[in-house]
């Protein structure tokens, strides 16, 4: 129901080099170009732009994928965090990068679907025109967590509390037009309550304020929410998925069990700048599929209530186009596209 730019030449003797440069000044640059064209991909560091602050669900998985890809590709894959503007800052930077296979981007439902619909022509990138799909990475529900001082130990108690204090309870999001915002607004509408939505630049500052008791609640991914739940610093009341995440939180009900049809399952995928060679796209897709099979990624997904999900580049492109159409309807229904 969730509808949001990545050769070395051998040295020669000074006398020979001078003779060649005088006789045929075009030869060195031609040789350099030929060497670059024939060099196997990848032969240098790949930059992985992540539109989140460090420490959240997307960033945690991005770093695990980057390490796995680096191991398989034989070159460093370096995560660069570029949060801001509901992921638009990182997306715009990735769109402007050289389409050479050495820059990739974590495109998400929030940034490539929901924020695009909510912001419209205000954005300086187009997810369909400016990017090449590479592969799905994973999908995950969000977990509704509250500070321990909130006098609610179940979803029903939270709803009753919110109704008794209209406009008083606060909910953190990582910006308008993001999955956390959509999940929170959908809950507010279905429960018939008035909750103050407070946007943050990323998960880290939002969680910090939630832990400090400055914010009452938040819909958040398992990587940043569940460790605090297990430590007793936050209380989890439900998940936004279609089914229970028993491996992550045994016995935790879904919000859909209270409000049938409620489901927010965020997806995360890899994209490259438009024009990136097909050979690079195919190599990245192949290695991602292998990384997804590793015990580290599989165990991480189970622990955080996520699900590893692969795809071909074509399948990802089809999914993105379809959701850009269907999400507009859902967002209009819940009013999250309104400014």
TrEMBL record:
Entry keyword Signal: yes
Keywords, alphabetical: Signal
Keyword Ligase among record annotations: no
Organism expressing this protein natively: Ramlibacter aurantiacus
Pfam families: TctC
The protein, known as: Tripartite tricarboxylate transporter substrate binding protein
Family: Belongs to the UPF0065 (bug) family.
Domain of life of the native organism: Bacteria
Signal sequence, renumbered to the chain: 1-33
Family matches, as Gene3D superfamilies: Bordetella uptake gene, domain 1 (3.40.190.150), Periplasmic binding protein-like II (3.40.190.10)
């Amino acid at each position: 129901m969730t509808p949001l730019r990545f050769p070395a030449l051998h040295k020669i003797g000074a006398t020979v080099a001078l003779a060649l440069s005088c006789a045929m000044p075009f030869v060195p640059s031609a040789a350099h170009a030929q060497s670059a064209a024939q060099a196997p991909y990848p032969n240098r560091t790949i930059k992985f732009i992540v539109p989140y602050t460090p420490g959240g669900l997307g960033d945690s998985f991005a770093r695990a994928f980057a390490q796995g890809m680096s191991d398989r590709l034989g070159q460093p894959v370096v995560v660069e965090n570029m949060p801001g503007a509901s992921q638009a800052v990182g997306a715009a930077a990735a769109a402007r990068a050289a389409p050479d296979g050495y820059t990739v981007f974590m495109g998400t439902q929030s940034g490539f679907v929901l924020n695009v619909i909510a912001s419209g022509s205000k954005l300086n990138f187009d997810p369909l025109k400016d990017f090449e799909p590479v592969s799905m990475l994973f999908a995950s529900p969000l977990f509704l967590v509250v500070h321990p001082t909130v006098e609610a130990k179940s979803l029903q108690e939270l709803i009753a509390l919110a109704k008794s204090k209209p406009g008083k309870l606060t909910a953190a999001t990582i910006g308008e037009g993001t999955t956390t915002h959509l999940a929170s607004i959908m809950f507010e509408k279905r429960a018939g309550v008035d909750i103050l939505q407070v946007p943050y630049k990323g998960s880290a500052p939002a969680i910090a304020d939630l832990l400090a008791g400055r914010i009452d609640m938040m819909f958040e991914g398992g990587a940043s929410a569940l460790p605090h739940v297990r430590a007793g610093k936050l209380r989890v009341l439900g998940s936004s998925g279609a089914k229970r995440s028993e491996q992550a939180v045994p016995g935790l009900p879904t919000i859909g069990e209270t409000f049938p049809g409620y489901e927010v399952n965020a997806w995360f995928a890899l994209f490259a700048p438009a024009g990136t060679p097909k050979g690079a796209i195919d190599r990245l897709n192949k290695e991602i599929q292998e990384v997804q099979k590793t015990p580290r990624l599989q165990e991480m997904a189970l622990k955080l209530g996520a699900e590893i999900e692969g795809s071909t580049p074509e399948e990802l492109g089809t999914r993105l186009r379809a959701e850009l159409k269907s999400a507009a309807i859902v967002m209009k229904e819940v009013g999250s596209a309104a400014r």
